[in-house]
Amino acid sequence: MPSTPPEASPAPAAVPPAGGDAVTELLRAWGAGDVQASESLVRLVYAELRRQAALALRREGEGHTLQPTALVHEAWLRLGDQDAARWESRTQFFAIAAQMMRRVLLDHARTRHALKRGGGAVQVSLSGAGGAEAGALARLAVLDPQKARLVDLRYFAGLSIPEAAAVLGVSTATVGREWAVARMWLRRELEP
């Protein structure tokens, strides 16, 4: 992948429309080592990645110093490090991109917290870095990793129930039930 994504400019005429099939084909070509495919891919997915970044930052609340463009660029760099990834679909790609954005936000929070406390010598736990939400999600991951992954896909990646079911390899009915239970559990954990 290129080292940085392009700015949000119109895609050249040679780039196919941003449909799932075009993205999937480019992902597979990129996985096979086609550098040109990665250039075309970034043009197709940049607007959606920026939308996901803006959504993630809105959930972070006021006072966040990252901007959507910076979050996309940081996540893109991490996606470029996914050499062993087997890109299977557009949905899988956006789910992994959302995870990368979440990790960037957590790392950013850890760094800010460490700077407030006198430098990088302080080790910060996941629950301390991301507030109550991150702590609750970390506890859910210990209790039920599948439900925590589902929360990542639905909340952070913005995937629909059918899209999350495809990524997890389970039925939509299972995802619906798991999502309802995960939401109730998180709501209970986050009550004051």
Helix/strand order: HHHHHHHH
Give the radius of gyration. Answer: 18 Å
N- to C-terminal distance? 44 Å
What is the CATH superfamily label of the largest domain?
Answer: RNA polymerase sigma factor, region 2, helix turn helix motif
Q: How many separate helices? A: 8
Low-confidence stretches: 8-17, 120-130
In short:
By secondary structure, this protein is mostly helical. Helix content is 70%, strand content 0%.
Question: Describe it for me?
Answer:
The chain is mostly helical. It has two domains: 110 residues, Rna Polymerase Sigma Factor, Chain: A (Orthogonal Bundle); 68 residues, Orthogonal Bundle (Arc Repressor Mutant, subunit A), CATH 1.10.10. Helix content is 70%, strand content 0%. The protein is built from eight helices and no strands. The longest helix has 27 residues. It is globular and about 50 Å long.
Q: What's the structural blueprint in terms of helices and strands?
A:
Layout (H helix, E strand, L loop, with lengths): L19 H12 L3 H26 L7 H13 L9 H27 L9 H18 L1 H12 L4 H8 L3 H19 L2
Helix pairs in contact: 1-2, 2-3, 2-4, 3-4, 4-5, 5-6, 5-8, 6-8, 7-8
